[in-house]
Amino acid sequence: MPKSKRNKVVSLTKAKKKGKEWKEGIVSQVRACIDKFPSVYLFRYFNMRNEKFKELRDELKDTSRFVMGSNKLLHVALGKTDADEYRLNLHEVSTRLTGQVGLFFTSLPREEVEALFKGFEHEDYARSGSRATSNFSLKEGPLSGPQGPLAHTIEPSLRKYGMPTKLNKGVVELVADHVVCREGQRLDPSSAAILRVFEMKMATFKIKLLAVWQAEGDEFEEMAVDDGGEDEEDGEADMFEGLDGM
Question: Higher-confidence residue: 6 or 119?
């Protein structure tokens, strides 16, 4: 008996692959930024927080563009070697496009750019997989957070996170000392959730300038040693953030 087409299962999770035309469009837009802006900065981001990043992008939209996405496409746009680079010395930027990095195209003077990113930091709660920046443990007895004693309704969640807790006349108590994390240790989902309950922020969203290319003279300059950001969280930047509206 033939199968009924009415019972065919259709996956809704499959994303349509980006075609050649879309990729060529991205390359063209990146090159348009190179032609438009006098400076291109290569930066590495740590502990990306999209909301704060979009605030920064909106603040600078009249003078600058951030571009982040597939490093492979950015390699094509800039040129991988001195033989195929779009402008002289842009391959120096391209070869450094690895990991959680992006490009900042701007007409702002260098002093202003350096001051802007040096002062840009946003503390937030660490996510699972990131490393603890300090030790954090809790002592046996009634539990309190920065806002006072914990609400009794949270006690089941704390037990779910692996904490030895109980309710004693509506008071959340820890029945034994508990180590949540140690400095340098990678956080699991439970320890990250506990840190949030006790309002312990162990992640800092920041941007580090690595290099700059100047259109005048086609000059490239390395600005800082790239440590790779190996111990940071995975980024969550949108695909080709910053090219909309060009």
Answer: 119
pLDDT higher than 70, residue 236: no
Alpha helices in the chain (DSSP H): 20-36, 50-59, 71-78, 90-94, 110-118, 155-160, 189-197
Task: Please report which confidence band the pLDDT of residue 69 belongs to, taking 50, 70 and 90 as the band edges.
Answer: confident
Q: Which residues pair with 65 in a beta bridge?
A: 105
Give the SS3 label for residue 196. Answer: helix
Q: What is the pTM of this model?
A: 0.81
Residue 189 has φ and ψ, to the nearest 5°, of -55, -35
Task: Enumerate residues 6+ apart whose C-beta is below 8 A from 126.
Answer: 47, 132, 133, 187, 192, 195, 201, 202, 203, 233
Other Cβ atoms within 10 Å of 88 Cβ, number: 14
Q: Which pLDDT value is given to residue 225?
A: 86
* CA 207 – CA 173 distance, rounded (Å): 41
- The residues near 161 (Cβ < 8 Å, ≥ 6 apart) are 190, 191, 193, 194
Phi/psi of residue 187, each to 5°?
A: -80, 135
